[in-house]
Each structure stands twice: as C-alpha cells, then as structure tokens.
Amino acid sequence: MIDLAGMAERYLTARDIFLSNASAAGWQVESIAHPLQGPDGITLHTDIASAGNPDSDYLLMVTSGTHGIEGYLGSEIQSRLLAEGIVASGSRDCHAVMVHAVNPYGFAWHRRVNEDNVDLNRNFIDFDLPLPVNEGYEEFYSLLNPVTWNEQYEATLKSEAAAAIARLGLGPLFKAVSGGQYEYPKGLQYGGGGPSWSRQNIEAIWSRMMTRKKCATQIDIHTGLGEPGVGVLMTYGAEEQARIRRARTMWTDIFVSPLPGSGDVITQGVLGPRLEEMFPREDVLAVVLEYGTLPPVDVLHAIAADNWLHHHGRVDSDTGSRIKQIMLDAFYLDDTNLREKAYSRAKDVVAAAGRRI
Ligand SMILES: [Zn+2]
After folding, report:
1. Which of 20, 50, 62, 69 is the most exposed place for a label (fewest CB within 10 A)?
2. In angstroms, what is the span from residue 71 Cα to ligand 1's centroid?
C-alpha cells in the first residue's frame, strides 16, 4: 500500500539522490518544471545532468522514466552510475547527458502513461498524417478497460489473458495490446492526439545537445518485459545497417535484438526511432535497455488496474493505495540481488557506450 504522501516522498527522494550525486560528481544540472503537480501538490521536474566535453562530436545520453513509474529502477541506475563515475566527467571525447524522468508526471503518480493518459512511447508519430490503426486492439478493449475493478476482475483478466496467449501466442497479443492505439483516449496504450509535453521537452533537449555532434548513442531504460532482473538491449533494424553494426561492435557479447517471443517489433511512435529520424545525417543509435520484473499477465493486470483507477476510481483511497503498490511491484525490482544484477548490466552497457568507437 502506498498513499499520496508515500508516492510524493518516493519521487522526491529519487530526484534528490540523482541531483546530489550529479553535483557531487561535477556534472552540470538543469531542471525543467512540469506544468502540473504531483501527489500531495509537489512540483515535478525533468532533470538534466551533463558532463564531459560539449564540443565533442559524440553524445552519450542515458534516459529514465519515459514510461513514468519505470523510472524508479532507471533513476537508481543513473544515480549509481554518477556515484561510481562510470562515465568520466572530464572526458574530452564524449559529451555525456543523463535525463531523469522524461515523463515526470507518470513517474511521480506511479503511472506508465503521462498526464493525458498517453503512452509516451506511442506518441512520437507525425500527427499530420493519418493516425495508425490497431485492428487487434478492439478485441481486448473491454477486457483491458473494465468499468469495475475487483478480485473477480483480476481473476478474469488473468485467465483470459493466459487463454489468449495460449490461443494466439504472446507475439500477436503483445502487438494488439502494446502496439498503441489512437482511438480510445481512456484506453490502454493510447498514443495521444498530438505531441505531448514530454515529447516536446525531450525533442528540445535533443536539439540542443546534438549541436555539433556527428555521432550519438541513447540508452532509454525501461522495465516490465522479460525475465526478472535481466536487462536486454533492444533496438530495431536489419543487421546490415551501420547503426546495428556499431551496436554489435560496441556491445559485442551483449544481446542487441528484440525480445524473443515479443512478435513484430513496434517502432511506431517510439522515442528512440524519433531521435534517429530527427538527425538523419548523423550516426545516431537509440536503444532500449529493458528489464524484466513480473510475468506479462501480472504486468498487464497492473496497467489495467491503474487505468481503471484513473478513470473510474479515486487515487486517494485504500483501493488507490493498493493499485499504486501493484504498479510498483510490476515495474520496480523490490529485491536487492535483482537490482544488483540490473545495475551490473547497465554499468557494462553504459561504460562500453562511453568509450567512443
Ligand atoms: Zn517501458
């Protein structure tokens, strides 16, 4: 159970540790306030720490909290990387940037989505073009967006999702549920009706940081998919692409691929491909470092419960506190050994990316 004060304290503590570790390591810090408040009326920020040589033609960026609450693990990893000096602040060959809480509203409110119920990783599309259609989504709409949420619903969701996985396979289900949709603003995986605050913010940060750069690596930390504590580097594209060859050279034995069994990869509206698209003349490689937490059905249950809460329930209630704890359990690793394992992988990934190749 975690109430509003508990959520506020968690967010502020994570942010304080990041800011103080960045300052102690000699990184420059700037903070951009979000227009809306967090739990208990706190102010929310996207914080940016930078070090190294801004005139270098190589940018290394590590981002957390694109999916709000997933930022708790990402924040800890960033703060520890700073404390241990994994990316040397005095490097002449690299301009290193860490963005803490790309989506601070979701981070502090224990949501994957932002203030508009938007999945930020489905929001980076061209809204002047016809919106993508997800034909598989409708079949699961009522199952994933209940009007009442109780133990009966939890049991139904789990059994029906397990049956759908058995019937369709995880891939098609993953695509239908996670592929994003632009028709149901109160549904799961809603991509939005225009560029969100977080998208505009991170695009402005990229534009500033990419000045004079010829090469960039961005590592966006996520949780909720895969084996508990195991970090998988994911990106898109074919082996023959120069960016994929660079990823293989840079990270050698660290797997760079979509998760096995996740079906067709989803690139529509995703943050990393947008960065690559914005700078077509530069050598830009954007990857997701994704950590597993709970089994897919439990993660799905957490997201559906949270969505129900924000449209039909009250965050400031016992049920709200219970669902916010369910979200934390689904997107954070509440186990020291698993977190240690997660950090170890991140350290290897970031250290390799910091050594310009
Ligand atoms: Zn995520």
Report:
1. 20
2. 9
